[in-house]
Amino acid sequence: MNIYLLLVLVFLAGAWLLETASTLLNLRALSPAVPEEFADVAEAQHYARSQEYARANAKLDMVTETAGTVALAAAVLAGAFPFLDRVVRGMFDHYIPQGLAFFGILALASGVLTVPASVYRTFVLEARFGFNRTTPALFIRDRIKGVLLGVSIGGPLLAGVLWFFATLGEWAWLVAWAFTVVVSLGVQYVAPVLILPLFNTFTPLPEGTLRGAIERYVREQGFSLSGLFVMDGSKRSGKGNAFFTGFGKKKRIALFDTLVETMPEEEVVAVVAHEVGHCRLRHVHRMVAAGVVRTGVTFLLLSFVLQSRPLFDAFGMQHMSLHAGIVFFSLLYTPLALLTGVWANALSRRYEFEADAFAARTTRGAEALASALKRLSVGNLSNLTPHRFHVLLHYSHPPVVERLQRLRAFGPPAAG
Ligand SMILES: [Zn+2]
Description:
The protein contains 16 helices and four strands.
């Protein structure tokens, strides 16, 4: 057997094994005893429900993970890629439309295959636990908008990358890297104004005591904010959240309506303080920089394997098509993707602790943030006792109990 084919199959099986082990360990870590930090807020019955939710999610994750792995391995072994390559070569003469069609058909196939799980998650699982507010019409509209966005951003990006690798020789990876970075920064820059409003309505937070309190805090911090919005998150889900978008002078904070409606004022301010902390501590810039480095390494490695005839032989390819080479590379890249993902999550978790500490320092004490985190976790039925391995692989935020333990070190609020 060709060494590349063997590697790809071993990586696929290995990734499946890791995911399954992580899910099983996570299930085993569910403990019937309410963690100490939550003794005052989580009733036993509600806590049992959060565990039921974790179990239901774990089951669905294992089914989708297994089905996805089997489908991909079957596609590799059955020669789906050379077949598809022949189809697109029959459709077009030029490598760019061939490549776009190749990726388009693959994206369509994976989209169609993942619809059942997505429908089940939204309309059965989330609905069973009282979270779902998405209507079937909204679900379909979201999907259509997602496809149109993918085509309008991914299409030109992919066409550019194919063109560089076909024409620029050994410097192609460098130009492709620069191009991808510019496109993705551009997308992130326009997202708050052009993309996010396609999916949600953002209304300025109305004048009142909450707005006054947030503005006072932001002013105290000497922080400039171009907008403070409420997002209609309740249109899709009952879960609450808050986030930050934009760079430089275009920084905005969006609070989910579900959060504004259920959380006391000082807790919302603490959540905003956490978000301001991310910005102040330059977390956003650092994550972007890390992403840029990661993209560069990926393109450099891609440029090595695109020339490798044995890689194409492994999949039974007649031609060394660029588009197919990119897909084969992504399969070979699995272990590295896993490692960089683990690294990015670890970095993100560290930043979360730092932003929590920032919020505790700049609002009076940590009580309000701790109380907000508890309220969010209880409301969202978060798993309070995830297994460390699962956290390592998947958590961009530290487990809430660890965040509360660190916040406790800040002590009770200072007098006055
Ligand atoms: Zn955060």
